[in-house]
Design goal:
The chain has 23 helices and 24 strands. The protein has about 800 residues and is an alpha/beta fold. Helix 5 packs antiparallel against helix 12. The protein is flat, with a radius of gyration of 42 Å.
Length: about 800
Amino acid sequence: MDSKTLNVLEYPKILGQLAGFCDFSASIDLARALEPTSSYELAIARIAETTEARKLFSMESTGVGAAHDIRPQVDLAARGGVLDPHALLDVKSTLISCRDLKKSFEKRTEEYPRLTQIVLGLPDTHGLVDSITRILSERGEILDSASPKLGDIRRNLRVAQDRLMTRLQKYVTDSKTVSMLQEPIITMRDGRYVIPLRAEFKGKIKSIIHDQSSSGATLFVEPLPVVEANNEIRELQLSQRDEERRILAQVSALIGEHATELKYGVENLAALDLAFAKAKYADELKASEPILHELKSAGSKLKDSQPSTFNLPTLNLVHARHPLLDHNNVVPIDIDPAPGTRAIVITGPNTGGKTVSLKTLGLLVVMAQSGLHIPAQSGSELPCFHSVWADIGDEQSIEQSLSTFSGHITNIIRIIKKIDERSLVIFDELGSGTDPQEGAAIARAILSHLLDVGAMTLVATHYPELKTFAHGTDGVVNASLEFDIKTLRPTYKLTLGLPGRSNALLIAQKLGLPQSIIDSARAEINPLDLRADKLLDDIRKERNRTSREREKLEKARAKLEAQSRDVEKRLEKIEDERRETLARARAEGELEVAVLKQNMDSLKQQLKKAKQPLEAIKLIEEKIGKIEEKVEQPVERKSNQLSVSSHQSLRLGERVTVSTLNAEGVVTALGESDAEVQIGTIRMRARLSDLVRRASEQSSVISKQKAESGKQIAESGRPNTKSPGMEVDLRGLMAEDALDKMERYLEQAFLSGLPFVRIIHGKGTGRLRQAVREALRGHEYIKSFEEGGSTEGGEGVTVAILKSG
């Protein structure tokens, strides 16, 4: 992409904001160097990475952790250099981040295929983390246990230091020598332990002078009796230094052996962090994923010099916002030209937003081709251009003796030489800076040339000749930015299909220019132009009225959709309760069948003992078998609606659902083939075939099952207790309170005959979960328990199977 165009569109500012969301230096450099691609496949892949990262962030918080750009350290190690402890800790933390990311993505290949592909390029640890941990503390100190030799040296060094300190301590505590000292302390000079002797006592203590104070009043001396001890300490310190360097060199060599993989891994880590940064930036902008369309070379031109329709770009931006403006204040624009449009001519007042509109489109195109989501409504579509060119702003140059017009023309000449039918060209104030008549002619000629080439073009202008050109040329459409005459302020709303008006006379009149001058000026204007302006004004008013009506309809539709979702949730809840009831009834039936079987076996034994025939029992066994088959049938999820076959089955006031609207209402009138239904405050007529009723008859069936189950339970000796529901929520409670609540719930669940229950304790620290499962283990009502499935809450839920009696 053209660097000058990117600067004009302020794309580097976008990259600066993106870099602010990166977590380490390598990805920051990658973000600042990000350029839009002309490859459709690469652009699609980049956008998919951002989409996957946003999906990941919506589920959990993740990142590259405490990673660093360790490539300079790795290069040094590869050349045989020795890394210092802090560099080794950077390597360690980076490898730990890579290891954690690989672990978190190892089971998510299908869900995040593109991010997983990047993660696969992260380096393995190769034991380096363990090697560094073995020799260094978290503060970067080399441990005594780094090697047996270092441990011995440090032990000997501590012994030698203690011995030396003991001998020097005699000098600072002995009454004979303490008076000779400036202070009773032991200090260091040139790596040797010394004492501060007052200058007037020089020679009183046989010693070696290592230093003196700035005033000369104090001499720092090493008594001769401790010289050998100081020598021993110094030798041990040098041995310690050499051993520490050997240890660091050994680990550095291991890092150097894997230098290529580690550097490649850092590059992939930076790419992954950039994907995360693009996701965070998209969330910050409230952006959405763009739909990109591939542009292929037309290859041939039609006879009328227009490019083949095979290559017509698809452009549809809905509620697009300039990404560098505050999204709370910026006015969004819609750019949705009719199919076949290749040029848009935007007119309107100064400071009305023409340049911002041009930059918005240009920026959103380069953002999408850089893999960024765009600040526009979901479903917005853009072509993937081969190149983007823009001439915006004042190109005046004193150094090159160029006027504004010359500067623009020079840039336009450069652009025209490089464009083709896969290019996007943006011109602001085309042909300005010179004689209006000649400027308009040049602008029209340039626009005609761009149409012949087939490039997608956006032009902002004040020339009325370009409005006329756009109106009478196929593939070109007028657009305008509205101006509020009442407030004398632009509205910044872009309208396609209508050219803009200057509104000069109205503005002058509003500002108080004498009416006689206004009338005189109006008389100078061609009446046809005035009539056209009046017609445009009427069309604009009609479009505004239609737009307001459309907004009202959209609000009504949104309200109906919300009501429909609410109804669906309620029906779903009712269906869940129905299934729970039937499941409970089935569990109770299974219990009763088991009791009957046990009684039958007992009766068989008694008949055998009494030597009575068993034929009478066989018939009963067959009936029990049929009952058992019926009880074992699964509880299927049924539709919450019953079709209405005829109006005889409907009643006035009955609640039904209009299937075509998916909305619930009340029957207010009945006809032969249709009915009147009131939905909220709206009444409408609907065919009987489009009406469905809720399965209210289901309640009578369930009641009958409950009655039969109650009778069986009474015979089995268990009280018929009201169900407490299939789950209990213990989150937010202290362990003692939670266990009390669970105990009361389990007792009621057992007495009501529930086959199993769900105990919600949450994940948290795991203490409440442990307390719950300890209480369940060996509980009088519990047969067994297990962790909830992935759709039931996983570790945050325990499913307990209740005993049958």
